[in-house]
């Protein structure tokens, strides 16, 4: 078995894509929380070649056709830009879908699973936690560049693969529902976390209000800018490719920046349980701001003024989502141990506290850039 699938099933899935050579191995890959990802190695007339095979999580993504249509348009647009700028190694700089035998962008198996294949980006890697300001600078530059490249994506508007994805008001409603139902009887364990949430409800509405008032524009954004969704070149250490495009859709630039703060400034892993190790590093925050502002020249004044806040907002939002999933019985995020989602929620709320302590210093820094 490979995850929930037999080797035979996976080999059958792979046979529906336009791949040459003999399949050697198919093994689970990466540390994403949503899709099932595999590395497929084929023997291509004596040379080993890798691909990424993914099963789209259709519990999370209820409209897989729309999602694949988005990804097809986005990757084609990115490749067009790379062509126009005569970039070197374009197939390492943007994801490339491999077509099915019938010419489609995905294969649906007999059980209704959606599968897709990407070229494997070689000589590059992802990190769950980063350590240097250079990496933070590079990650921010990557996601800002991504937003830049998609700013002129031809209409129609991209589909919303998960509606209200970063909307904290609806995320809080979902938490309240999960707390009310309390299907696993876990609510009594989380009173400290619920108190933390309640104390922050009001201030977290800021961006929703500013967007409604027309002060902050909608843009095409990635919406899942966690640090392991950008690949770094092994040789140069520079960012090479933005991956995980399932949530690329209309959103706020600040949500993307906020998720970078959440993950790229973290001194410890997202599920670290020793909270004394959990903090948001100022040096990495500064590098993020510098990297982001070096590329994101489109930012309005209102957006720049909310950069610091956006880090707290998205960290809080993901904490709320982990807590909700814990109360709901761990149905959304992949978990690998008992209480995993609760550990993650506690970790995220600690990250919010850490950012709160540094808030004035961070505001000063942003004003100085
Ligand atoms: P999830 O939505 O579950 O996070 P991702 O698309 O981010 O799935 O893929 C999971 C991991 O697989 C990534 O963090 C990365 O390490 C690896 N990966 C994904 N796509 C590629 C690719 N085209 N080439 C090499 N590695 C990849
Ligand atoms: C999920 O797919 P992955 O692991 O890159 C989630 C993000 C969360 C993140 C928390 C579609 O991201 O929204 O911020 O976990 N993706 C989706 O680690 O829900
Ligand atoms: Mg991912």
Helix content: 40-55%
Largest sheet data: 6 strands, antiparallel
Helical region count? 13
Mean pLDDT score: 97
Task: List each distinct ligand once.
Answer: adenosine-5'-diphosphate, 2-acetamido-2-deoxy-1-O-phosphono-alpha-D-glucopyranose, magnesium ion
Silhouette: globular
CATH superfamily membership of the largest domain: Aminoglycoside phosphotransferase (APH), C-terminal lobe
Distance between the termini: 52 Å
Regions with little confidence, pLDDT below 50 for 5+ residues? none
The proportion of strand residues reads 5-15%
Secondary structure topology:
Elements: H1 7-14, E1 22-28, E2 36-44, E3 47-56, H2 64-84, H3 90-93, E4 97-98, E5 107-108, E6 114-119, E7 124-125, H4 133-150, H5 168-181, H6 191-200, H7 206-212, E8 219-221, E9 230-233, E10 239-242, E11 249-251, H8 253-264, H9 282-295, H10 301-305, H11 307-328, H12 340-357, H13 359-368
Antiparallel strand pairs: 1-2, 2-3, 3-6, 4-6, 5-6, 7-9, 8-11, 9-10
Task: Give a written overview of the molecule.
The protein is α+β, with helices and mostly antiparallel strands. Helix content is 44%, strand content 14%. The chain has 13 helices and 11 strands. The strands form 3 sheets. Strands 1, 2, 3, 4, 5 and 6 form a 6-stranded antiparallel sheet that branches. A 3-stranded antiparallel sheet has the order 7-9-10, covered by helices on one side. Strand 1 (22-28) and strand 2 (36-44) form a beta hairpin. Helix 4 (133-150) packs antiparallel against helix 8 (253-264) and helix 11 packs antiparallel against helix 12 (340-357). The protein is globular and about 60 Å long. The protein starts with 6 loop residues before the first helix and ends with a helix. The model has no long low-confidence stretch (mean pLDDT 97). 2-acetamido-2-deoxy-1-O-phosphono-alpha-D-glucopyranose (GN1) binds at residues 32-34, 60, 224, 226, 229, 244, 246-247, 270, 318.
């Amino acid at each position: 078995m490979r995850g929930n699938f037999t080797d035979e099933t996976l080999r059958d899935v792979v046979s529906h894509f336009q791949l040459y050579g003999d399949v050697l191995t198919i093994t689970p890959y990466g540390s994403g929380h949503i899709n099932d990802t595999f590395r497929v190695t084929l023997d291509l007339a004596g040379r080993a070649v890798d691909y990424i095979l993914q099963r789209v999580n259709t519990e999370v993504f209820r409209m897989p056709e729309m999602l694949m249509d988005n990804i097809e348009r986005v990757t084609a647009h990115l490749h067009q830009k790379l062509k126009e700028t005569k970039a070197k190694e374009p197939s390492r700089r943007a994801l490339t879908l491999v077509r099915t035998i019938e010419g489609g962008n995905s294969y649906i198996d007999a059980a209704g699973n959606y599968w897709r294949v990407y070229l494997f980006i070689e000589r590059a890697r992802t990190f769950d936690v980063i350590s240097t300001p250079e990496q933070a600078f590079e990650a921010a530059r990557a996601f800002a560049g991504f937003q830049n490249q998609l700013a002129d994506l031809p209409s129609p508007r991209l589909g919303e693969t998960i509606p209200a994805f970063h909307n904290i008001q609806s995320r809080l409603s979902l938490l309240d529902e999960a707390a009310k139902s309390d299907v696993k009887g876990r609510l009594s364990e989380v009173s400290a976390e619920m108190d933390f949430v309640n104390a922050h409800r009001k201030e977290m509405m800021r961006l929703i209000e500013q967007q409604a008032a027309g002060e902050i524009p909608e843009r095409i954004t990635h919406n899942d800018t966690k640090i392991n969704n950008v690949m770094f070149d092994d040789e140069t250490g520079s960012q090479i490719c933005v991956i995980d495009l399932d949530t690329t859709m209309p959103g706020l630039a600040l949500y993307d920046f906020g998720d970078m703060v959440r993950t790229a400034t973290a001194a410890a892993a997202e599920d670290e349980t020793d909270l004394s190790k959990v903090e948001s590093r100022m040096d990495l925050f500064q590098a993020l701001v510098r990297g982001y502002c070096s590329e994101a020249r489109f930012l309005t004044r209102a957006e720049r003024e909310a950069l610091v806040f956006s880090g707290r907002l998205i960290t809080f939002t993901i904490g709320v989502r982990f807590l909700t999933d814990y109360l709901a019985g761990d149905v959304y995020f992949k978990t690998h141990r008992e209480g995993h989602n609760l550990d993650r929620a506690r970790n995220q709320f600690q990250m919010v506290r850490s950012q709160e302590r540094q808030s004035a210093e961070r505001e000063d820094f942003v004003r100085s850039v």
